[in-house]
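Risk register update: the risk of archive-format incompatibility is retired. Evidence:
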Amino acid sequence: MITSPQHNQQVAGIFRSIAERLGTQRANPYRVRAYRRAADAIEALEEDIADVAARQALEEIDGIGRDLADKIEEFLRTGAIQAYEALRTPLPESVKAWTHLPGLSESLVAYLYTRLCITTLTDLERLVRSHMLRTVPGFSGSEERLLDAITASQQPPIKTREEAP
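Archived output:
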């Protein structure tokens, strides 16, 4: 078995992570597939990707176009890919908590936040009331149950007698 040079493993790993994150965000499936194909091609290289880049031959690798070649060059220059760093930005805790609402999975919440810019419970409620959420792939719940849960989440907790002043 031939092992790929270290740069190849690093770039391929980043491209696979990008593909995974884009898939979670329900990005264009062709874009997701392009990152996966590029990762496979880079891992299969027997030569270090840095040497290929030095020869300005990145686009000769199957599945590597100008955009991905630019990302590889950025990695070789800086040790990071800015687009990947942006994708790694975690969801705010208040948004991540929506995964506990009925019918909302982690990938759906990430999609609503990153792609549809739904950033508050009020935004989410507005989306549900417009009946547009039912058109989003991955929503598996009842709009009515979700609205009830949103309303309950927005109300302040009821104080018990022990908590009352």
